[in-house]
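Researcher: Re-running this chain for the archive, since the previous output was lost when a drive failed. Same request as before.
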Amino acid sequence: MEAQEKPAPRERPAGRPRLTNKEQYAPTAPPRKMDEPRVKKAKLETPLDDSGLYKSDPAKFGRAGVMLAEADADLARREEKWLELKMRRKESRDSIGGQSD
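Model: Regenerated structure tokens:
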């Protein structure tokens, strides 16, 4: 019997971004995960809009300010991650001749 030669493995073009399955099939619209910090921010901004809160309860005002900053940072991280994934998808499609968003 003759041994058949196995075809060489197909090489990925240099510089082509590789997406994980999770990234490839993630939703293309902004995920609902971003809604949570947006709702939290809205709830925290309401008491901070009260001009008398600082005078009546400075500790509550301070806690709300810290929590608002944390919600802002959380939302920014989630948005950045989503935008990065969207750009990687576009680069991946463009590198194989697909269409962009």
